[in-house]
């Protein structure tokens, strides 16, 4: 039996007006009436109701309408209550199933990354990680993904404090080289740890971005270098990036990268 879909005309018109204001900024009563083809009386009633509740406002002394701050308040409340771990876990399980690799959700904590979630892969030989483990930023895919999407001022502060310890012969140990590398990471949308933190271990990571486009977390997959060879990197990086975008969308970011 097909489920009935209920639509309330007044609510649809109200949403149409709010979305129109969102796309066009300051608009007049006539613009709304003419472009949305809503009767003048209905437009007036909706706008007055929205204005009284703080969802739209008049711009200065003009007769043009603009979105009100109540919408911003509601959006802020939603973002503040999002549990990123709960949103990310199903997507990480799916990513682990597709890649057979161990997956993590991580956040930036000072000058280190921290694993919040670990989803074990199905490979017979697995990497030794755990929830709560701290990791260096300059030599891991996760760390580079977290660094590449923070603002310049915060990045400078972190780089001043960061000790670029050499863990393998592939580790980046110069700030200038790391900054160039982070630019490349940002352009391609994902980061690679090519045996830079541990020999024979590779990782691929991508950022989870909030509504402002800032990295609030990162997801990653990690495994033996033999399991993530050069022929698989592009395919896996696309899966990781798409999963990160999906989670970003769940917490409010709608930007396609």
Tell me what the structure shows.
There is one protein chain. This protein is of the alpha+beta class and 257 residues long. The chain has 2 domains: 9-78, Orthogonal Bundle (Arc Repressor Mutant, subunit A), CATH 1.10.10.10; 82-250, Beta-Lactamase. It is 46% helix and 19% strand. It has helices at 9-24, 29-36, 40-52, 69-80, 84-99, 141-148, 152-161, 175-188, 230-250; strands at 27-28, 56-58, 64-67, 102-109, 112-119, 134-135, 191-194, 201-209, 215-224. The two termini are 39 Å apart.
Helix content: 40-55%
Mean pLDDT: 88
- What topology, given as strand order, has the largest sheet? 6-5-4-9-8-7
CATH superfamily of the largest domain: GAF domain
CATH class of the largest domain: Alpha Beta
Biggest sheet character = 6 strands, antiparallel
Ranges where pLDDT stays below 50 over 5 or more residues in a row are none
Shape: elongated
Report the end-to-end length measured between terminal Cα atoms: 39 Å
Please count the helical segments.
9
Q: What percentage of the residues does DSSP assign to strands (E)?
A: 15-25%
The secondary-structure class comes to alpha+beta
| CATH fold annotation of the largest domain | Beta-Lactamase
In sequence order, what are the helices and strands, one letter per element?
HEHHEEHHEEEHHHEEEH
Descriptive tags:
Beta-Lactamase, 9 helices, alpha+beta, 257 residues, Arc Repressor Mutant, subunit A
Quick structural summary:
The chain is α+β, with helices and mostly antiparallel strands and 257 residues long.
């Amino acid at each position: 039996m097909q489920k009935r879909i209920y639509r309330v005309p007044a609510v649809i018109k109200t949403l149409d007006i709010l979305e129109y204001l969102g796309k066009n900024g300051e608009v007049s009563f006539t613009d709304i009436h003419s472009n949305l083809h809503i009767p003048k009386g209905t437009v007036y009633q909706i706008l007055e109701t929205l204005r009284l509740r703080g969802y739209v406002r008049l711009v200065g002394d003009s007769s043009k309408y603009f979105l009100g701050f109540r919408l911003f308040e509601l959006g802020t409340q939603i973002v503040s209550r999002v549990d990123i771990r709960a949103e990310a876990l199903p997507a990480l399980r799916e990513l682990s199933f597709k890649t057979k690799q161990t997956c993590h959700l991580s956040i930036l904590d000072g000058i280190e990354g921290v694993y919040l979630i670990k989803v074990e892969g199905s490979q017979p030989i697995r990497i030794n990680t755990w929830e709560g483990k701290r990791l260096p930023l300059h030599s891991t895919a996760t760390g580079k993904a977290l660094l590449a999407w923070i603002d310049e001022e915060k990045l400078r502060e972190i780089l001043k404090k960061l000790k670029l310890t050499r863990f393998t012969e592939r580790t980046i140990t110069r700030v200038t080289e790391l900054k160039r590398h982070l630019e490349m990471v940002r352009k391609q949308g994902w980061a690679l740890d090519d045996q830079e933190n541990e020999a024979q271990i590779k990782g691929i990571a991508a950022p989870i971005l909030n509504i402002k486009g800032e990295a609030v977390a990162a997801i990653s997959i990690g495994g033996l270098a033999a399991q993530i060879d050069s022929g698989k990197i592009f395919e896996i990086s696309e899966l990781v990036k798409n999963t990160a975008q999906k989670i970003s969308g769940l917490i409010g970011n709608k930007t396609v990268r």
